[in-house]
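Lab notebook, bench 4. Still working through the backlog of constructs that have no structural model yet. Next entry is a single chain of 142 residues. Request: give me the structure tokens for it.
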Amino acid sequence: MRTPIGRHRPPAHDDEPLRTDAQVLDRATRLVGAAIRPQLWLMLLDPRGRQLPLLVPVEGIPAHPELDAVAGMARIIGQLARSAGAASVVAVLERPGGEHPDRGVCAWGAVLVDAAAEAGTPLRALLLAHDGGVRLLGIDDL
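Model written out:
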């Protein structure tokens, strides 16, 4: 069973900047892993691309976003980024099931892209944690 990371400092080797998608995928795989329950994880990065010592689980994310989801997620991302001094954010949607995104994952992906833009915090990567592990989601997946 996975214990949420919360405000614990990542291990020292996690201070390396996340320069490639493969590095982001590896970090998300180690920190979030395969899906257990529906939720969202936000990983904040500093201006050099290093993970800040904060991994935020957002529980209670419904299967499909509500109409005001962009505004609500923009507030969450904006407040977290400002308080932590983050330059960008990595979002990991955790959804039990297969690796292929369903309509809900696609809708949430679009919400997160728009919310990060509205918050003024670039979305470094969007990933899906599923039953078999973690995968990057590209624009073609949305």
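Notes after review: Residues 6 and 28 are 14 Å apart (CA to CA). The radius of gyration is 14 Å. Flag for follow-up if needed.
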